[in-house]
Specification:
- Two copies of one chain form a homodimer.
- Chain A is α/β, with parallel strands linked by helices.
- The radius of gyration of chain A is 19 Å and the shape is globular.
- The first copy, chain A, has an eight-stranded parallel sheet with strand order 1-9-8-6-5-4-3-2. In chain A, strands 7-11-10 form a three-stranded antiparallel sheet, with no helix packed on it.
- In chain A, helix 2 runs parallel beside helix 3, helix 3 runs parallel beside helix 5 and helix 4 runs parallel beside helix 12.
- The first copy, chain A, has two domains: 234 residues, TIM Barrel; 94 residues, no CATH class.
- In chain A, strand 10 and strand 11 form a beta hairpin.
């Protein structure tokens, strides 16, 4: 079955889920233009998840994906590491004259995907994508019984094989070029950092599922190359970063549009989990301090207040400027126009449904 | 002008120069099959350079490239750092029961490309490729006056632009997937680690020269993708690593063929310069020691004896197992057969000259 048939979309182009950037309006714009929008809800409460799904549904009657974080939530971290990091953060707050309030450990609320499944089932979400892990077998069964199509994220061949074995329908191959968090869930070795040109065909050869390319894609050339490499679909994130429907602050958009091919780096500074963003002062300060960075989601919670303040007040040096290696090629404009312009340059044999 | 016309070859496929692996026989086999062989001579004496060129010429009358190291040779390192590293190396020698002799600093001979230019001019080398820097203007003039075509190596857009400004004819865009040494020469920021899918089109857009893709290429799909991304030629290194004409030891070939997409990492452990190789015990030991690694070429000279011993005695844990992220897809066989098989799967409109 063709990927477009499988997902009931006109064009095999997905908008990458970007928590904090993607809005219901972005998801709906992509869906209405014939692509697959992806609504990121990782870590959000069931109520917030429901609210975002309803907001998206109010703007489109086309299918869209809801994207979950499927990581282990049992990871713990020491109070000493948290305290040391909080001292550093307090100093950074002070540098910028931002009022600091020390979060209590009990505030570290982060919902697991298990908490969100009921909402997804209730709303009959047709496509459920996820990253950071495998869904537990019972959840896979539940979602598939309802007819949901499952899309997992792999950053290396072994992860792709594990996803196939777990029963997913489609694999996203996330190359090292990709912006935002690495979807990596195998932690018995160094972080996989395989470039799309190498990763994609190796995953295509290793699994029998359709593979969606992610990482580095920004125009017709790169999308066509992904298809040549064996992808049946493509997922673009940074491509929509500067769009009108993006929740990225003006400082964030400006930083992305003035970046270069070497502006980004992988960092654990913001969330405790490896992610690619434009290098800024916060990343450098945390890395230079050579502290033990509390593991995700602790560090994510510790920096949440600072990141939110920086977004609201346009302080690019403190924002997690997630962006891929091709992000500077992003453009401003309506997400639907950006997508349509890309589609026009591709030779799809299928007309919009 | 087409790249094949410019280089007087039948197919726009280059064999990547792999010092210590590439032999005159490999270069000649590729040349005779219609590709462009590249003879690596970086750091070698003028006499050795001459000997290798003559050996290659004795096996082919087709053009081939000679590849130089164009790095700054003025970099110095402290005797204390060298002594500390030598202590670590002595311990590693002891671990493996290998007789250790402490090299004197005067033994750190490494010829600069300026020492080799006379030989290249004398032998009328038609294509001179280089990495690790820019050739000085006088050398560019000398080589161009003789009619040599110059190929420089870029790992980011800024390097490509500098190469174009320096007067080279062709740029190799080396993606992060590539095995062996990074060609990086801009040192005012972190090491560029841009994936081919992102780097290649961005370099194509930034310069008006023909661009050759390198990094991650291993089959017809990846080569076709590189052309779609705007490359006019492709350079494959690891593809020839396990060939009959490769000087890689059996232990090295076995390690490559049994690798995976995540087996390699970037390291400075062997040479002092960043290079991609299969992770092994030596890399881990040097990195875990967290010493100051003497800069290239000092570290390269310090580890030369150990690497040579390991190659001769098939000790994969001590060999610099340079390999790219797609290297496990390499095949054994004659280099000419490997290349011909690849060419047959591509749709070139040109017949062998």
């Amino acid at each position: 079955m063709k990927l477009t048939t499988q997902l009931a979309i006109a064009y095999p182009i997905l908008q990458g889920p970007m928590l904090g950037v993607t809005t219901p309006a972005m998801v709906a714009a992509v869906a209405n233009a014939g692509g697959l929008g992806s609504l990121p809800v990782g870590g959000l409460s069931p109520e917030k998840t429901h609210e975002l799904i309803l907001a998206t549904k109010s703007k489109t009657d086309k299918p869209f994906a809801v994207n979950l974080f499927a990581h282990e939530t049992s990871v713990s971290t020491s109070q000493a590491d948290i305290d040391t990091m909080l001292n550093l953060l307090e100093a950074i707050y002070e540098d910028y004259g931002i009022p600091f309030s020390r979060p209590a450990l009990t505030e570290f609320n982060f919902y697991s995907y298990q908490d969100q499944i009921e909402v997804l089932l209730h709303e009959q979400i047709p496509i459920v994508s996820f990253t950071f892990g495998l869904l537990e077998p019972a959840v896979v069964d539940q979602l598939k019984q309802q007819g949901s199509t499952l899309i997992g994220t792999a950053t290396c061949v072994r992860e792709a094989i594990l996803l196939e074995e777990s029963g997913v329908d489609i694999v996203v191959a996330q190359g090292v070029e990709a912006g935002g968090h690495r979807g990596t869930f195998l932690t018995d070795g160094p972080l996989p950092q395989v470039g799309s040109l190498s990763l994609l065909p190796q995953i295509v050869d290793a699994v029998s599922l359709p593979v969606i390319a992610a990482g580095g894609l920004f125009d017709a050339r790169t999308v066509k190359a992904a298809f040549v490499l064996g992808a049946e679909g493509v997922q673009l994130g940074s491509f929509f970063l500067a769009s009108d429907e993006s929740a990225a602050s003006e400082a964030y958009k400006t930083a992305v549009l003035s970046a270069s091919d070497t502006s980004t780096a992988l960092t654990r500074a913001f969330s405790g989990r490896w992610a690619r963003g434009i290098t800024n002062r916060f990343m450098e300060q945390v890395e230079q301090a050579t502290l033990t960075i509390p593991y995700y989601t602790y560090q994510n919670s510790l920096t949440a207040g600072l990141r939110a303040y920086a977004q609201q007040n346009n302080i690019p040096e403190l924002i997690s400027l997630w962006a891929g290696q091709s992000a500077s090629n992003s453009r401003r404009g309506k997400a639907s126009d950006l997508l349509r312009s890309l589609i026009e340059q591709l030779d799809f044999d299928q007309e919009p449904v």
